[in-house]
Amino acid sequence: MADKEPTKEEEAAAAAKQKEEQDALPYKWSQTIGDLDVSVEIPENLKARDLNVEVKRKKLLLAIKGQDPIISGDLPHEIHVDESTWTLVSSPSGTKLLELHLDKVNKMQWWEHVVTTAPKIDVTKIQPENSKLGDLDGETRGMVEKMMYDQRQKEAGLPTSDEEKKQEMLKNFMKSHPEMDFSKAKMN
């Protein structure tokens, strides 16, 4: 049975429910494709020694010592522990913010939630910011540049990089074998 498209009202209701669930969390969070940031408001008089912060590859614990955890649970995906950090900063409202930065292992995946027990968001609705080629790692950048080059070549009716490579190999083969007759050869 085919899934039907949700109506505007159903989409609005789902968005309102998601917003309500996220607003009810004791923390705020945001993400880019490569990392995730969590912000927790805590009383102004607390210092780092009053907190229990454990950041592991697949687990997270944020708590004020002697109290129930603010966040505790399994992460939906792995993080780079050594690249993840947390800090305490004063906020304009007179409280402090515990700011946690998690560096995702898979930099090509949106997270539906911070921990698996938290309500999920609809990641299909995320509008990623435009990125620059310089922001990409070397391998990804090379792949994107090749795709852009091939697209420009196709639009101009010229051979793509793969087709150019094949033509060059054939030219070299023909040069290496002048005794062969290629006059009736069909290349596609």
**Roughly what fraction of the amino acids lie in strands?**
25-35%
Q: Uncertain segments of ≥5 residues (pLDDT<50)?
A: none
Trace the largest sheet across and list its strands: 1-2-7-6
Biggest pleated sheet: 4 strands, antiparallel
Structural class, from helix and strand content? alpha+beta
Quaternary state, please? single chain
Range of helix content: 25-40%
Distance from first to last alpha carbon? 42 Å
Account of the protein in words:
A hairpin with a 3-residue loop joins strand 3 (51-55) and strand 4 (59-64). The protein has helices at 8-24, 138-155, 161-176; strands at residues 28-31, 35-42, 51-55, 59-64, 71-74, 79-90, 96-104. The mean pLDDT is 87. 27% of the residues lie in helices and 26% in strands. The strands form 2 sheets. The chain has a 4-stranded antiparallel beta sheet, with no helix packed on it. The chain has a 3-stranded antiparallel beta sheet with strand order 3-4-5, with no helix packed on it. The longest helix is centred in the last third of the chain and has 18 residues, at 138-155. The chain is α+β, with helices and mostly antiparallel strands and 188 residues long. It is elongated, with a radius of gyration of 26 Å. The chain has 3 helices and 7 strands.
Compile the SSE list and pairings.
Layout: H1 8-24, E1 28-31, E2 35-42, E3 51-55, E4 59-64, E5 71-74, E6 79-90, E7 96-104, H2 138-155, H3 161-176
Antiparallel strand pairs: 1-2, 2-7, 3-4, 4-5, 6-7
Produce a short descriptive summary:
This protein is an alpha+beta fold and 188 residues long. It is built from 3 helices and 7 strands. Helix content is 27%, strand content 26%.
